[in-house]
Amino acid sequence: MRRLAALALVLPVAACGGGDAGESGDGGELTVLAAASLTDVFEELATPFEEEHDVAVTFSFGSSTDLAESVVDGAPGDVLATADEASMALAEEAGVTGDVETLATNVLTIVVPAGNPAGIESLDDLADATWVRCADEVPCGKVAVALLDANGVTAEPVSLEEDVRATLDKVVSGEADAGLVYATDAVAAGDEVEVVEIPGAEDALTSYSAATLEQSEDPDLAADWVTWVTSEEGRAILADAGWGSP
């Protein structure tokens, strides 16, 4: 199974591709540590990559902040992809990344359960609703705080979630009337949610980036992955999933 339950700090295995797996297709393995909001699109991008390179792509999805801190601490992995520049900068400044490439952009939106039972039409309606957002220290939480402050919203969420997927799950399950998530997460949820756009959200674009890791056991294969996801075809797949251009 591609998705690992644990964060990189407790990954049970390291990437084990051979030194020339990216060129020879010798059945190696690539480990990608990525922001939770990249889950669906990265798993889609992995299929053609695996077929072309004869490798297995393994993911560890989670909070960008946690993932960046884990690679600084030496957690195994080949590629890091984050949902904000600050998290990538943490890894970059620690000297554990190669060149950083911008992947795409994203915006925050309100999602509500199908049918919008609480009648949420704007951020102001959160005052009378049970709603959730990401924790302050993770990228989606930082953007949410900025947008709420800019719109003068003082309503408090019933919970602060560890990442954007946990936030989305609370809405999909009906545990919350609304949640603040990225637009791409709303697309991934399909008919299970409805979207309430936030005016001015585009002024707080989230920029995603990716880089190879110094601890990679197969840097050539890691570089191939970054090249693939930032290629014209890769960005077309990102665009189809709702991502904006870099």
What is the compact description of this entry?
With 246 residues, the chain is an alpha/beta fold. The chain contains 9 helices and 11 strands. It is globular.
How far the N terminus sits from the C terminus, by CA atoms, comes to: 30 Å
The share of residues in extended strands comes to: 15-25%
Major β-sheet profile: 6 strands, mixed
Annotated CATH topology of the largest domain:
D-Maltodextrin-Binding Protein, domain 2
SSE pattern, N- to C-terminal? EHEHEHEHEEEHEHEHEEHH
The CATH level-2 architecture of the largest domain is identified as 3-Layer(aba) Sandwich
Main structural class: alpha/beta
Number of domains: 2
CATH superfamily of the largest domain: Periplasmic binding protein-like II
Shape: globular
Rg, please? 18 Å
Number of strands: 11
Q: Helix share of residues?
A: 25-40%
List the helices and strands and how they pair.
Elements: E1 3-4, H1 21-24, E2 29-35, H2 39-53, E3 56-62, H3 64-72, E4 79-82, H4 85-93, E5 97-106, E6 108-113, E7 131-134, H5 139-150, E8 159-161, H6 164-172, E9 178-182, H7 183-189, E10 193-196, E11 206-213, H8 219-229, H9 232-240
Parallel strand pairs: 1-3, 2-3, 2-4, 7-8, 7-9
Antiparallel strand pairs: 4-11, 5-11, 6-9, 6-10
